[in-house]
Amino acid sequence: MHKQKNKSQKHKTKFNFKKFMPLPKTMLNKNQTITPFKPEKKYNLLLATWLALVIVAAFALVAATWIIKKYYEPEFFSIAPQKNVKILPAEVYAYAGVITEIKTDYLIIKALASKNYLLKDQLLMVKIDGETKISRLLIPKTITSQSNTAGIKSTELTKEDLKIGQNITVSSQENIKNKISFTADKIETQIVK
Questions:
Q1: Are residues 101 and 30 part of one domain?
Q2: pLDDT profile of the chain (193 residues), mean per 10
């Protein structure tokens, strides 16, 4: 029994509380001993394994966040609209432009992207047939009536009345989106007086 007492006393070390934290004499006896906590080796290995896993997971999370922000954020995670992106409708039935050429059965007009549903300025071939109506709209500078069309006068024209450099609006019954050549149902010039 005496030998067992010696073995247990080997693990006990005296710890001087006065050195690290002075306490009143009534709280500390001279022979007071503390047994320090010494985990076994398997606990040290388990702790080291978990700590390594946490560090690897944190590193992977930081790396994944960096990759997502760098490569995928503009496409998937950005809720702000991107600059200079023009959203076009599915169907387009009219374009406005300036006449650049007049031929026997068609016109070439320059349609600006800023005034049309186009991604870039475009030259369009507008075919004219016997069904195409050509007209001039005279629009007053101020409209005083309740009606939006009050004071607007329409005059029929012929192809010969059209001039190079004239601003026109061409429209069609068919969807002309992404077409550079189409037959116009109506061609209008507008004059504001």
A1: no
A2: 50 56 50 55 76 93 84 55 72 95 94 91 94 90 68 88 94 93 94 80
